[in-house]
Amino acid sequence: MKGNFQKPEVLAPAGGWPQLKAAVENGADAVYFGLSKFNARARASNFHPERDLPAVMEYLHRHGVKGYVTVNVLLFDSELDEFEDMVRSIARHGVDAVIVQDIGAVKMIKSISPNLNIHGSTQMSITSAEGVKFARRQGVSRVVLGRELSVTEIASIQKEIGEELMEGIEIFVHGALCVSYSGQCFSSEAWGGRSANRGQCAQACRLPYELLVNGKRKPMEDVKYLLSPQDLMAVELVPQLISAGVSSLKIEGRLKSPEYVALTTKVYREAVDKAWELFSSSSSSSKKDTSLISELSRRELQQVFARAQDENHNGLTPGFLEGPRHQRLVRGRNPRHRGILVGKVEGVEDGGVRIKVCGPIKRGDGVVFDRGAPEEKEEGGSVYEVIDSRGRSVARTSNEEVTSGSFLVKFGKNALELRRVGRGDLVWKTRDAAVDKKLEALVKGGGERGGHGGGAEGASESAAGVSIKVSGELGKQLTIIAEDQLGRVGRGTTMSVLQEATSKGLDEESLRKSIGLLGGTGLRLLHLDVSALAGGTFVPASEIKAARREAVEQLLEQRLMTAEGMAEEAVVSNIVDASFTSLAQGERQAGRDGRAPKIAILCRTREQCEEAMKVEWLEEIILDFLEVHGLVQAVEAVRGSGKRVIVATPRVLKPEEERMWRFYLRLGADALLVRSTGMLQKLTDLGGAGAVLSDKEELRIPELHGDFSLNAANRISALHLLEEGLARLAPTHDLNAFQLCELGNSLGPGGHQLEAIIHQHLPIFHTEHCVFCRFLSDGNSYKDCGHPCETNSVHLRDQARRAQQEGNEHLVLADMGCRNTVFNAKAQSGVFYVSDLIRAGYRNFRIELVDEPPHQVIPILTAYHDLLHHRATPGELWTWLRSLQNANGRAQGVEEGSLVHSARARAEDLKPTASQQNPKWSKMGAQALKDK
Q1: 626 torsion bin: left (phi>0), alpha (psi -120 to 50), beta (else)
Q2: What range does the domain containing 543 cover?
Q3: Annotated region Disordered: where (predicted)?
C-alpha cells in the first residue's frame, strides 16, 4: 500500500486446465473460473465441483495464486437445493471468493458459509456508488463495475465509497466488450431461448443489421455490424486505474485459448509492476505512459485476438475508460478476429497476389483477404512464397520478414480462388508461426512471474515466492521462518542448539546450500535474511534441512486451509420462512388476496398517454418518457384524470446522474418504477416509501415498484427485494410462463405483489453505445453529435430467416442519458398464459407500448381487458395482434417469446469453443492434472 492506493491484482480467466496453468505460469495474482453449472460461460470446458475443484485449489494455493469461482448467473427456483450443495463444495475446498450475480444467491451463500468472500459480478449492472452500497449491504466484499464507466467515473465511485468494500473495486481491462450492459441483455432470450443471464449468450450483437432511418434504408457500404464493438485494451491506462483506487484488473476470456491467457496475463503483469514502480517514485503517475507496453507486445496482443476493422482501427480500444468515443468503439466492418493488417491487394498476377505491404509478413504466415463481407466465405491461406520486385524469394524466416513495399505473395496449389480476391482488399495476418511458437512456450512455463521476484536458478518460475529468515544465538536452537507473499507463515527449529564453529561458521552462502531450491514444494526462494543469526556459530546441515522442511510444511498447510463455519442445516427453507415472517408483519399484504386482476399500461409518448387517459376502467398509467421534457405536464394530466400515475426511473445510473432521485420525487407521482439497485439504495437511505424529506423542500417518497431489470428469478431474490420496501415486483424476463407461475405459487400471499408483463416489445439490448451518434453524426458524444435522436426514428433490420422475406425491424430509442434501448420487432404476448398466472396469484398485469401509434392504444387495452373478463378468447386476440403495424407501417407479428415453455439450451448443444475444437489443448489439460 502506497499512500491511499494499493497495487492491483492481475486477475486472469481460465476456461479449463490449460488456461489455468497458463495464467499461473505468467504471473496472475488470481484466477477466475467456472464449475460445471451456474456460470456465465456455459460453453467453456469448466471444472467439476468435486472431481476437479480440490486439485484446482491445491494447485493455485501452492503457487500463491487465489482462485475465484464464478456463479454469475440467475438461479431458478428448481435449482436452489443443487446450488446449495455446490456452495458447500466451494467452501469446503478453500475457494477464495465467489463471483455472483443473483442477490438470492448472495443471501444463500452468506447463510451457508459466512466467511466465504462474495464478489458482485458485472452482471449485477452496478455503475454508481449507491449500487455499490446496495451490494455491500447484502454482504458483497468486492464489486465488478460495469464496463461502460470511465476512469473518472470509477474514481468518483471509489472516492464516495471509501473503505466500504473490504476487497475494493474490480474492473475489466482487456477482452471482448458486450454492447449491452451486462445483466440487461435479453436478445438471446428473445430470439433463441438461450439467456445471457444463464451463460448461454448467442452473440446477437455480432450479427449484421441494416439501418432504417425514418422508415428508409440508409446506405452503409461495408458497415453492417452496427452493434459489434471492438475489444478492450487498457494496458496504457494502468497508472490512472491505480490512481482511481482500483483493486483488481480483470482480463476477459474464459472462452479463449491458453495462448491468449498466457500472453494477456504476462502483458498486464509487467504493466502493473512497472506502473507500480513508477507510481511510487514519480509524481506524474496519472499521465499515460506508453512504455508500459512494447510495440512487439502490442502486435502480439493483436495477433492472438483482435476484431480489427480497417487501416485505422486495429480491434483494440480503451472502450469507455476514456469516456464515450462512439466513432471509435463500433466501426461495423467486422465482428470477429482479424489479427494484424499487413497490406492491401494491388492485383492478381502470375498465380499469386500482389500486395502493397504495410506490416510484417513472411513465409508460413496465415492471411485472409477482406472484401468487406465477413458474413460470406473469405479467401485465405498460408503464405508459400514472398517475391520482391527483382523476382527474388524473400522473407523465408522470422528474421527476414518484410514490412513495406510491393511484393508478389504466392500460396499453395488450389489454396485460393484467385477470382474472389480483388484490388483494394485488405490483407490480415491471422496466424504467425513465430508468435505461435513463442506463445506455446509461455503456456508451457516460459513466462516470468513478474512482481513475484526473480527466483533461484533451477526453481520453477511458476512457483510461489517465499522469504526465509534464519535466526539464532549461541546455545539456542536455530529457527527458520518461511513467509509467502500473502503473509502466511511457517516455522521450523533445529533439534540441536547452535555451537561455536571450529572453522568457518554459518553464513548466507552455506545456508542457501542447506536450505536448497525448495524444488518439488511449489515454492521458490525470493529472499534469504540471516541478519538475526549470530556469527561464528554452527549446526549440522541435516538439521537445517529438517527445520526448513518443518517450516515449509507448516506454510503449505496454511495455504491449503479450507473455509470454516459452514451452516449445517439446509438454508433455502430457513431463508424463505424468515422472509415470509418479515413480509407478514408489514401492511402491504392487508386486504390484497381477494383483489380482482387489473391492467396498467406503460406509455412512452404523450400521445399514447392521452389516449390511455380516455379509458374509464384503467386505474394506472406508467410514464416512461425518454426525455424529461413534458414529463411534469404528463404527470399532472394523468392525476387530473383521476388515475394513479407511476413514473419509470432509469435502468442505469452513473455517478453524475445519482442526484436524479430529487427530480423524480418532485414529480409527486403515486409510485416510482425502480429499475436499478442504485436507485433503490438511495431511496431506502432516504427512509423508503412514505418518508417525508424536508431539507430545502418537502418531498415525499411514494410507493416503490421494482421492474424486471432487478432480475428477480427465484423466490429468495423476489422475497428479498420485497423486503427492501417494494410494494410490487416484476420478475426478470429470463423466466418463462411456467416459471412465473411457479414463482407466484412459491410466494403464497406474496404472489399478489408480483406483476406480469403480458404485452411488450422485449428490450433486447440496453447500451451505452449510441447508434444515433455513431451512424447519424460525426460526433463522439452528446456534446458534439447534434442530437439526431431528437429528429429521427431508427430501426435495425436483421437478416431474414427465409428467402424473399425482409428482416424484422427493431426500434432503437435513446434515453435522457444517451443510452440506447433496442426493442424486439415482434410484440411478445402472454395471452395464452393469463389464466395460469391468475391462478398462481398474480393480480397485476402490465401492457408496455413502444412506438405504437396513438390509434392502437385503446384497442390494445380493450382487447386485453376483454380477455381478463372472459369476453374474448386468447386465439381471437392473438390473431388480431398479428396484424398490428409498427411506426413504419409494417406488420411485425406477435410471439410468445421468453414466455414459451421450451427446453433450455444445454451446454453440449452450444457452439464449441476454440479450446474444445483444438485437441492439443485437451492433452494439455490432462498434463496439467499430472503437473498440479
Answers
A1: alpha
A2: 464-559
A3: 904-932
Distance CA 506, CA 858 (A): 95
Domain contains 52: yes
Share of the chain above pLDDT 70, in %: 88
Beta bridge partners of 537: 500
Task: For residue 665, give the amino acid letter.
Answer: L
8 A C-beta contact, residue 463 and residue 475: no
Query: CB-hemisphere CA count at 13 Å for 190?
Result: 24
Same domain, 524 and 657: no
Structural domain count, the chain: 4
* Closest alpha carbon to 395 in 386, 404, 403: 386
Do 442 and 486 reside in the same domain of the chain? no
- Asked if residue 323 has pLDDT above 90, the reply is yes
Q: Does 777 reside within a domain? A: no
Banded pLDDT at 918 (limits 50, 70, 90): very low
Tell whether 34 and 108 lie within a shared domain. Answer: yes
Q: Do 397 and 274 have their domain in common?
A: no
Find cell 401492511 and name the residue.
587
What is the CB-side half-sphere exposure of residue 280 using CA atoms within 13 A?
Answer: 10
- Per-residue CA distances from 741 to 242, 410, 577, 735 (Å): 48, 64, 20, 9
Q: Which CATH number is 347's domain given?
A: 2.40.30.10
Is pLDDT above 90 for 432? Answer: yes
Question: Which residues make Cβ contacts (< 8 Å) with residue 507, sequence separation at least 6?
Answer: 530
Reported as a single tens digit per residue, the pLDDT across 107-120 is 999 999 999 999 99
Q: Which pTM was predicted? A: 0.86
Q: Is 381 helix (H, G, I), strand (E, B) or coil?
A: strand
At 30, which CATH number? Answer: 3.20.20.70
Please write the tens of the pLDDT for every residue from 676-710: 999 999 999 999 999 999 777 789 999 999 999 99
pLDDT tens digit sequence for 444-465: 875 555 434 333 333 444 456 7
